[in-house]
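dumping the sequnces here before i forget
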Amino acid sequence: MIAALALVAALDAAPADDATVASRMQSARIASAVTFVVVVVGLGLGARALSRRARKVEDEERLAAAFREIDEDLSKEKGK
Amino acid sequence: MERPTATFFDLIRTQRTFEELPKARKLQLAAMATLGALVFAALWGAAAGSCVATLALGNLIKVPIVVLLSAVAAAPLGVVAWKLLGEDTSATDLLLAHARSLLCGSLLLGTLVPIVALYYHSSAFAGPLLADGTVLLSLLLGGAVFLRLAWRAPGAKNKVVGAVVPGVVLAVQAAAMLQLVALASPILPDPTMFRRGVDGFVTSAAEPR
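..and the predicted 3d for all of it:
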């Protein structure tokens, strides 16, 4: 029933006239330009912030690995 | 322990998975790959519109808009489906695969800039054909790279998910791209079937022969 009504509504829907479509497209152009600028700035700033965070994580991992190595060496020496 | 590194060429090598990198580094690479893709797309746009100075200048921003916003339009559906259908799938891996595929497709456009500009200036017949051809080639390459990277993503154990989700993302991206091309038109100096978006297809199909 709902599908039939939707089909009738779709078939009955009149396409927007050229002036309406042109006006909508103008709004969409502005919206896409603004979105583009926002996303590009976000990607740039995000990349910088992520780089800092990644460096921190990698440094922590390196530090943890170094401590593990020292621990292993010490336990080997104790074993001797 | 050495700090893990990734070069530009690592990003376009599909054998490289970046499994060893932390999540933040992967996301940073995704952002850098996307920004790199925009640069190559802008170069191609300038070359394709180089017959008309205003078109070439406009294309420096129009073509990157088409590339970026089509990807942004498709990404949310992909991430949700990827997390929902996969078990150990990581959204970061999907985003990185998507960004790397954008970079590969745009890089192909970027490498063909000289030939596109040359043909647009020297041939009325081959210029538009070559421009359209390079776009189709880059779309095919980008799509293939995305499918391959998503298929080989570390958490994508279910191979149906690894193939279907990127396929759906590519379909949504193509649909968005079609309408974004209509919004950004004219991109090429000559009219193409994509200039009016989906309306162009419907009108040309409905027109009596």
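The mean pLDDT of chain B is 87.
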